[in-house]
Amino acid sequence: MYQLDPIAALATAPGIGAIAIVRVSGEGAIDIVNRMFGGKDLTQQASHTAHFGTLRERTDKKDVVASDGIIDEVLVTVFRSPKSFTKEDLVEISCHGSEFIIQQILRRLTQEGVRLARPGEFTQRAFLNGQFDLVQAEAVADLIASDSDASHRAALTQLRGGFSRQLKTLRQQLIDFVALVELELDFGEEDVQFAHRDQLRQLMVDIRRVLHPLIDSFSVGNVIKNGVQTVIVGKPNAGKSTLLNALLNEDKAIVSAIPGTTRDVIEDELFIDGIRFRLIDTAGLREATDTIEAIGIERTQQKMRDAALVVYLFDGLNIASSELQIAINEVRQSGKPYLLVGNKLDALDDIKRQQLEKAAAEPIRWISAVEKTYLDELKTALSSRVRTDSAVQIGSAVVTNARHYEHLMGTDDALARALIGLDAGTTPDWLAMDLRVALQHLGELTGEITSDDLLDSIFSKFCIGK
Ligand SMILES: Nc1nc2c(ncn2[C@@H]2O[C@H](COP(=O)(O)OP(=O)(O)OP(=O)(O)O)[C@@H](O)[C@H]2O)c(=O)[nH]1
Ligand SMILES: [Mg+2]
């Protein structure tokens, strides 16, 4: 087990709650904290034990904080290598959550030779000491960054081992095969086969079977992490901005009776059942009357292309049956999942409503954006749409990370090529080449092959103290 130079940082979010935790990890961490601790002798305490006491200024110091030289009353938890998060000696100091106290403690630690940690450095050490693999390390980053229930769950699943354990086993089997294939190369002209071709084929098929659901889960994973891009589109005056405001419960967008009020896209996020929706209000779709409106409409179309979900909103009072049918056709042609929403139910008579329902020949979700009626039903429809639109259940391994996705695809491509080669009876050197590429991608995925640049870039995404 490596023990590097001691580092320290605030491990809790600053300014939140009455208690803060300062974390110290590395060679001599326990001894160092002990020197400033008034209480039991920490060097004699077992791992995973907590001790109440005081943190004190150095006795030779004159500019002490309090007259008695006490910085704070603290609870100190001792973790001994290798049974800690970083696998190094680690001490967590729970102190009062004041910015001033935290600064004093960190300053006091640096007096004792502790260095302030860089972002993600604790996790990086944990990774270097084999606490977990890279996929899990990145899951820690995602976990810290996750701000919706669903993304939190996805990150937790990855942290617990998720798909990486399975991939590691398969990679090991593939390594064994590659070694055999490469051994064949050494025999050159002689026509020997050490690697059993049928077994190799089976293994490659098995690996791809593991890869495919993971690859497919990426779009869902992205949705969980980054939110569902949901555009509200429709003709001018349909009530799009009114609906956005009603869903957000604030006056974000300007509403007026003049068609063409919204001229640019307006965005905000909304959580429904733990899923983050990025709601986008757009300029109404029609022939533009001026340049600015034309730009707005072009942006609407762009947003619609990027969207994961479209809410097509129409004004039930001012739409003819034939217009509605044309509109529905247009949304269908976009190929996006959509909800057909009819607005202004408050002012609509039953006969008109039934006419429109008949013309639409598909379910219309009726609301009144002004009176905020049936909005809960609309929200439920939005979230269930996202949940049912994909076969992947949240909770099974979901790939949320673009780098993982890239290497999953890379592995899959290489294996596909190797399989084609195998069936065509290619020479061992070609086979070995494709398998090597597959191994490279697999290794980078699980962190068994890493470059320093990659590590630095991954861990720099963490915040300090993690
Ligand atoms: N009766 C009734 N009027 C509504 C409702 N929703 C919106 N309106 C009215 O319809 C008009 C247009 O509303 P907006 O929200 O600005 O419409 P928009 O779709 O954003 O329009 P543009 O930005 O011009 O494309 C306003 O006068 C609203 O008060 C509703 O549910 N019932
Ligand atoms: Mg508007």
Walk me through what this model shows:
By secondary structure, the chain is of the alpha/beta class. It has three domains: 7-131, Probable tRNA modification gtpase trme, domain 1 (Gyrase A, domain 2, 2-Layer Sandwich), CATH 3.30.1360; 149-222 and 397-447, tRNA modification GTPase MnmE domain 2 (Four Helix Bundle (Hemerythrin (Met), subunit A), Up-down Bundle), CATH 1.20.120; 227-369, Rossmann fold, CATH 3.40.50. Helices cover 47% and strands 16% of the residues. It has helices at 29-35, 99-111, 121-128, 134-145, 149-159, 164-186, 197-226, 240-248, 291-306, 321-334, 350-360, 375-388, 402-423, 428-446, 452-459, and strands at 7-10, 19-25, 37-38, 49-56, 70-79, 90-96, 115-116, 228-233, 266-272, 275-281, 309-315, 338-343, 365-366. It has a seven-stranded mixed beta sheet. A six-stranded mixed beta sheet has the order 9-10-8-11-12-13, sandwiched between helices. α11 links the parallel β12 (338-343) and β13 (365-366). Mean pLDDT is 82; it is low at 390-395. The chain binds guanosine-5'-triphosphate and magnesium ion. Magnesium ion binds at residues 240-241, 253, 261-262, 281. The site of magnesium ion (MG) has 6 residues, from α8.
